[in-house]
Write a structure and sequence with these properties.
The complex is a heterodimer of chains A (300) and B (337). By secondary structure, chain A is an all-alpha fold. Chain A has a single domain, classed as MetI-like fold, CATH 1.10.3720. Helices cover 77% and strands 0% of the residues of chain A. Chain A is built from 13 helices and no strands. In chain A, helix 2 runs antiparallel to helix 13, helix 3 crosses helix 13 and helix 8 crosses helix 10. The radius of gyration of chain A is 23 Å and the shape is globular. The N terminus of chain A is likely disordered. By secondary structure, chain B is of the alpha/beta class. Chain B has 2 domains: 184 residues, D-Maltodextrin-Binding Protein, domain 2; 147 residues, D-Maltodextrin-Binding Protein, domain 2. Chain B is globular. The N and C termini of chain B lie far apart (84 Å). Classes of the chains: A mainly alpha (300), B alpha/beta (337). The interface between A and B is medium-sized, with 29 and 28 residues.
């Protein structure tokens, strides 16, 4: 039983994509494969084979068996870090969606000049070095930082707010980085949106609230879902931002894996840690494919 | 005829120096102000003397180190590593022997030379603090580092499982230096529990400097050279040497390094009295050559760990090499809790 939204999504894709890829239906199945060979070969060499090697190492290094998985799951550390990784990625994704949707809507409806200016600012932030941006947040957020000093000087707070070395700091820093990705994935579906639909909804007696939930959101769902998935998966692997803006109780898996690889040289355990994360991520992807279809999930 | 000979000489000279310059080796260290000094005081004069070009690489990454050696595809010739890593790497067969000439070896500070590793520099974990933070009062011992009542404020500590903080916690709790090892981990973590909410962690030397200089953490345990650099840049911070925990970096050659002979010559030069003296003057990290102190300006000496020997507590690298994994697992379990 598909969700009511899913049907609208498929319809929206049918209309939205028909113009973009007119020849698709006419082509045979095998056609279109050849031009993709270089990219597929790259993926095979740079992703599939290393992942396989990682899996093998987690099973074989230092001895064949499941001891790396046992070592990983024996202490509470890995569970906590894994749970925290998903908590951070989930929080960041949710906040990014909440902020990104209105921003993307503004870009779609604002006068051309303002839309271009704001879009320029959004994209420009992507071109600035990640480490520099994260250090800048550190300087802004810490208890002796610009924000807290300003708040105290204005008399709004008496003691510095805890904005860094916790989930708040990580979320602020990462949402800022992820926002452009959300806006970019909503751009196409918003541009393709037929404004007449809302008039039709209103004519049929829908309130603005109903029109938003039952017409607007379902039509945007493919872009929203693919953007959210992309952000969620990127956030799962984040390293620098949580390391600099989060406390150790917000440690994410990438940090732990980096320690295992670089400092402790326990590659087997690191492989196991990475592989469990990959397996969980892929199963989440599978859930999304079930809900939205391959194209919706993959960003069609 | 004379002109022809002149030309030939110029040509021969060019070819010869070209051949010499073509010889290169790769030196890998941790970047930042430390590697800048290593380049200036070791690599540049070494190249001038031998004609061997030294390519700087970094930062040191043990994962990469191990992967290179295991794959038999090594691109590093000399690497600056932490001492406990060198002990483990030697045991795991990742290193090539140094073969330091006997007359050079005799000049190395005792304890900083093994078959596979020789000191690069040695340093202390010291209390660095914001000099004006507690109205004239200054921390004097490691116990003060854990006393949040008399010295309120955040504490900055190195984030990763490594020698230093556990020892500091035990010393602050009253364990005498001679009885430090084997570390009583339960006691160390209990002591750390008492200030856990006041800890901010630094993951790199630059971050530690940022935390101290901005006042975010008015006190912490730091590498002495990093606090020294802040003092030299005019920041109002100070060092307490009363109890300082000494350890060192060492230079090693990965097994299968492509330019073994050049690597050995470089190490012999870098550990010479003159090169060590120049580096120590620039960084505040201590020389591992016994002849260096005599070559240094008197004014540079008080900044060196050498001048605070009464407070030295040596960190036991052999112990850490043997227990690193076990400690790390406790460490991360405690940190993430």
């Amino acid at each position: 039983m598909p969700a009511p939204g899913a049907i609208a999504v498929r319809e929206a894709q049918g209309t939205g994509l028909a113009g973009a890829r007119p020849a698709r239906g006419a082509r045979g199945r095998g056609e279109g494969f050849a031009p993709a060979v270089p990219a597929l070969a790259l993926l095979l060499c740079c992703f599939a084979l290393p992942v396989l090697a990682l899996l093998l190492r987690s099973l074989l290094d230092p001895r064949p068996g499941l001891e790396n998985y046992a070592a990983l799951l024996a202490t509470g550390t890995y569970y906590r870090v894994l749970a925290n990784t998903f908590l951070v990625a989930g929080t960041v994704t949710a906040v990014t969606v909440l902020l990104g949707l209105p921003l993307a809507w503004f870009l779609a409806v604002a006068p051309a000049f303002w839309a271009r200016l704001v879009f320029g600012i959004v994209v420009l932030s992507m071109w600035t070095n990640l480490l520099a941006r994260t250090y800048a947040w550190m300087v802004l957020l810490q208890s002796t930082g610009v924000i807290n000093r300003a708040l105290i000087a204005l008399g709004l707070v008496s003691a510095p707010l805890p904005l860094i070395d916790n989930l708040t700091g990580v979320t602020i820093g990462m949402v800022y980085i992820m926002l452009p990705f959300m806006v970019l994935s909503l751009r196409m579906p918003l541009a393709a949106l037929d404004r007449e639909t809302f008039r039709a909804a209103a004519l049929c007696g829908a309130s603005r609230w109903q029109a938003f939930w039952r017409v607007f959101l379902p039509l945007l769902m493919p872009g929203l879902a693919s953007g959210a998935l992309m952000i969620f998966v990127m956030a799962l692997g984040y390293y620098i931002t949580p390391s600099l803006l989060g406390g150790t109780s917000n440690m994410m898996l990438a940090e732990l894996i980096a320690q295992l690889v670089q400092s402790l040289l326990q590659w087997g355990v690191a492989g196991a840690a990475a592989f469990v994360l990959l397996a969980i991520t892929l199963s989440l992807y599978a859930v999304q494919v079930r809900l939205f279809g391959v194209r919706g999930a993959a960003g069609g | 005829m004379r002109r022809a000979i002149g030309l030939a000489a110029v040509l021969a000279f060019t070819l010869a120096s070209g051949a010499a310059l073509a010889q290169t080796m790769v030196f890998t260290s941790w970047g930042g102000t430390t590697q800048d000094a290593q380049k200036k005081d070791w690599a540049v004069p070494f190249t001038r003397r031998t004609g061997i070009r030294v390519v700087q690489d970094g930062p040191t990454n043990y994962g990469k180190f191990k992967a290179m050696v295991q794959a038999g595809n090594v691109s590093w010739d000399v690497v600056d590593v932490e001492y406990d890593f060198a002990v483990r790497a030697a045991k795991d067969g990742l290193l090539a022997p140094l073969d330091l000439p006997a007359q050079d070896a005799a000049r190395i500070v005792p304890g900083f030379l093994t078959r596979y590793a020789v000191g690069s520099f040695y340093y202390s974990f010291v209390i660095g603090y914001d000099a004006g933070h507690w109205r004239g009062r200054a921390p004097r011992t490691l116990a003060d580092l854990f006393d949040t009542r008399r010295f309120p404020g955040k504490r900055a500590f190195y984030k990763w499982s490594a020698p230093g903080l556990l020892e500091a916690a035990l010393l602050a709790d009253g364990v005498p230096p001679a009885k430090l090892y084997p570390l009583d981990l339960n006691r160390a973590f209990r002591k750390l529990d008492t200030i856990k909410k006041d800890i901010v962690w630094w993951g790199s030397g630059a971050q530690s400097q940022q935390l101290l200089a901005s006042g975010e953490a008015p006190i912490g345990l730091f590498w002495n050279g990093r606090v020294q650099a802040l003092i030299q840049s005019g920041q109002k911070v100070a060092i307490d040497w009363t109890q300082n925990l000494t350890t060192g970096d060492v230079l090693v050659i990965p097994r299968g390094a492509p330019h073994l002979a050049a690597a050995r010559r470089f190490i012999a030069y870098a550990t010479s009295a003159k090169a060590q003296a120049a580096f120590a003057t620039d960084t505040g990290y201590a020389p591992i050559n016994q002849g260096s102190i005599a070559l240094m300006a008197k004014t540079a000496l008080p900044e060196l760990p050498d001048s605070h020997a009464a407070g030295h507590v040596p960190l036991d690298m052999q112990y850490w090499a043997d227990h690193r994994d076990q400690i790390a697992s406790r460490w991360y379990a405690w940190q993430t809790k």
